[in-house]
Amino acid sequence: MINRFQNLLARKPQCLLNLYVTAGYPRLHDTVPLLQTLAAAGADILEIGVPFSDPLADGPVIQQTSAVALRNGMTLKLLLRELQGIRQVLPDTPLLLMGYLNPVLQLGMEEFCRQASEAGIDGVILPDLPAEEYADFYQETFRRYNLRPVFLITPQTSEARIRRLDELTDAFLYLVSGPGLTGGNQTADQGAQQAYLRRVEALNLRNPRLVGFGIADKASFEQACQHAHGAIIGSALLRALDGAADPHEAARQFVQGIRPAQSTTPAIS
Amino acid sequence: MSQYQPSARGYYGQFGGAFIPEMLYPNVEELREQYLDILADPDFQREYQLLLRDYVGRPTPLFRAERLSQHFGATIYLKREDLCHTGAHKVNNTVGQILLAERLGKKRIIAETGAGQHGVATATVCALRGLQCIVYMGAVDMERQKPNVARMRMLGAEVRAAVSGSQTLKDATNEAIRDWISNPTDTHYIIGSVVGPHPYPDLVARLQAVISEEIRRQLREKTGSELPDYVVACVGGGSNAAGAFYHYLDEPAVQLVAVEAAGHGVDTDKSAATSVLGRPGIIHGSRTLLMQDEHGQITEPHSISAGLDYPGIGPLHAFLADSRRAQFLSITDHDALQAAQLCSRLEGIIPALESAHAIAALEVMDLKPTDVVVLNLSGRGDKDLETYLRELQLV
């Protein structure tokens, strides 16, 4: 079974840039073209946010973009339809769907996995699906469709639990950078954040680790890369798209600001 | 064990559970591991019972409402939760949870509120115990329940407006959960209803169970039997109903009647009657009946009563509805207003708009003259006077 996460890591073992966009934002049919633009500009992994009316773990930016996307008419069904065929234009980039559990359950977990798999999606992040429920009820379905779950880890997560979550996937682990929501300012206590990232690094886990929440610019991206395999940026990118005359140009410029041209990324030794 | 007690993972039948993001896991896990031990601790019980008696004013009376009885053609008892300190049953839960928070070593308390009664009850116990208090309230609810906003501020709480979505109870709960995610170590979230992730529905139900414990004793003193024919209570999230039903759940002779807010009517798009309009789904960490569209987006409910204006119900109530243990009725804004006036004029008791829904249900129940009905009068109506005067055109 193809594992695009492992393939990516073999090509490029560090400083992976994972970008998140809300599907259906800024305009209803922007999703697939924006994903292509972001990949061409240098994103290594792409997360496609499924908008939800009540995104509990998200800060104001993603709350706002989700509300706009829903007003635009985005639905999970429409998104899955739009994603069919995306592998013709993005054959290698790992693609994830990130969203809340309720819309997925209304479509039906099996049906969701089937359509996501047909589109060539690699992984799924459902923050309100606890690992225990996943293991008991959905792991078989995910495996059957070659989908990998991504679990969140926080500074409060115990070592035993981190190891359990590490066993449950072979995509990557999502290290929430500190207390707070997506888009928050997590850089306030750099010392505590670095200590946490080092602590998890020292566990020698099976999976690569990507840092998310509050990663907003070149400095915080590079900081996160020091003790992890890369980082995830969502809210800051969406802010850059907000009101942009040309979202594609804004997206390109944003990626340039994080990682000025591919050549400056650390060489693979 | 009773089928109405949750399983180890917090399920009542297919409803319940704990669908929370990992950021909340340590907090919820800590609570789950400790709440039963703390509630059973003799030291906790001594303090809790003393506060219920001397601070809340329990037991609250069970009042035989003669003129309402005549009007409805059955014997109606009102369980006077409106006489609790702060004016509603909500304080039973907050007194217990503040003692729990102290034992968990928490310094900062957050809460959500709809009608403001839970917010006031939380602000009250925080003042009593000297803990910081932040209450999230929908901006729409702050406008329609102004007296309670003023009371919370007088008590020293900070009231933060929830401005997303329909700006009501659901959105206030979202904001409270987001606050808890952002403050994972020093904060306890006092949820006001039997909603949220396990163990909250069970915790709040146990702390409200004092209502039915007292009803049984008081009814025996008055009638010789602990068992009425009906127990009637309104349901938003369902905490007062859970408390009034709790010690009757395993008494099949007692019919439990849960009264939801129909808003403009269950056949309109302005309603909050979740058991009629909802399908199984996930809200605020719990699998329950939920008002949602075909794509799984949560829809905005409507009720004139801020305390019932919620698109879900507690998982216990979803199970009671699904298993038909309780009968669910829905009452429109209009009928609730009429019932509030009726109770005011026949008994000299101005009920909260929420409780007025339960009173209105007596009209549509098929009561016999021999029936004994206990109606949980969950709160008093001071907070609703502006609405009453305007809607009943009394000014």
UniProtKB/TrEMBL annotation, chain B:
PROSITE patterns membership: TRP_SYNTHASE_BETA
Keyword Lyase: yes
Keywords: Amino-acid biosynthesis, Aromatic amino acid biosynthesis, Lyase, Pyridoxal phosphate, Tryptophan biosynthesis
Molecular function GO labels: tryptophan synthase activity
Residue numbers of N6-(pyridoxal phosphate)lysine PTMs: 90
CDD domains registered for this protein in UniProt: Trp-synth_B
Leading EC class: lyase
Catalysed reaction equations from the record: (1S,2R)-1-C-(indol-3-yl)glycerol 3-phosphate + L-serine = D-glyceraldehyde 3-phosphate + L-tryptophan + H2O
EC numbers, comma separated: 4.2.1.20
Pathway: Amino-acid biosynthesis; L-tryptophan biosynthesis; L-tryptophan from chorismate: step 5/5
InterPro entries: Trp_synth_b_CS, Trp_synth_beta, Trp_synth_beta/beta-like, TrpB-like_PALP, TrpB-like_PALP_sf
Pfam family, one: PALP
Cofactor: pyridoxal 5'-phosphate
A single Gene Ontology CC term: cytoplasm
Domain Tryptophan synthase beta chain-like PALP: 57-379
Function: The beta subunit is responsible for the synthesis of L-tryptophan from indole and L-serine.
Family: Belongs to the TrpB family.
PANTHER family named in the record: TRYPTOPHAN SYNTHASE, TRYPTOPHAN SYNTHASE-RELATED
Subunit composition and interactions: Tetramer of two alpha and two beta chains.
Stated name of the protein: Tryptophan synthase beta chain
